[in-house]
Design goal:
The protein is of the alpha+beta class and about 190 residues long. About 15% of the residues lie in helices and about 35% in strands. The protein is built from 4 helices and 12 strands. A hairpin with a 6-residue loop joins strand 7 and strand 8.
Length: about 190
């Protein structure tokens, strides 16, 4: 079975890297509770990390490595099409020579980080409802803009999304005693 060549942005590998691995991670917070027990909070998936090692050989091997390095220097995310993994929007975060290069042989390692947009896509801004004409106003504590916490979100991330500091969000939400402990479905005031 012949695999399709690996691609990133406009660069196509002349032959696939020799080895590659993928690492999936999930962040879990551990909170101590009385009597030596712990509670776990699932903060959701983090980026996938894709690493590997390859080589260029034959006439022009070092020139091929320079082409790959020029893609690395472009910065920003791009489409990573891999022969085995699903395609992903990824950042090219590491490119290293694994030995002293020669004109006809270059061994290298690489690392890509997936750009996980699930956190940004799950954010929904909410505002308090305005009273109907002739009705009474809602209590001051319920007026303002609110955010409903989604799985995997952090208070710091929510603050950044709304252009606030963590201290500012904590001041708006005196009911939150520990900024590291929020739960999906919880309402957080952001304005």
């Amino acid at each position: 079975m012949e695999l399709t060549p690996m691609q990133y942005k406009g660069y196509v590998w002349p032959h696939n890297p020799r080895t590659y691995t993928i690492r999936y991670q999930r962040k879990v917070a551990v909170h101590k509770i009385p009597f030596g027990r712990c509670a776990m909070q699932d903060l959701g998936l983090t980026r996938r990390v894709m690493t590997g090692e390859g080589e260029f050989y034959g006439p022009g091997a070092y020139d091929e490595f320079k082409k790959l390095a020029s893609v690395f220097y472009q910065g920003g995310p791009g489409a990573l099409v891999h022969p085995v993994w699903q395609s992903a929007k990824a950042y090219f975060v590491d490119l290293s020579l694994a030995q002293e290069p020669r004109k006809d042989y270059v061994r290298y390692t690489f690392t890509f980080w997936e750009d996980f947009e699930g956190y940004r896509q799950s954010l929904t801004a909410q505002t308090a409802e305005k009273p109907a004409a002739g009705g009474t106003a809602a209590p001051a504590a319920s007026q303002g803009r609110y955010h409903t916490v989604s799985p995997g979100e952090t208070l710091y991330g929510i603050a950044r999304t709304y252009g606030l500091t963590l201290a500012g969000v904590m001041a708006l939400n005196p009911q939150i005693k520990n900024p590291n402990v929020i739960r999906p479905g919880q309402q957080v005031r952001v304005g």
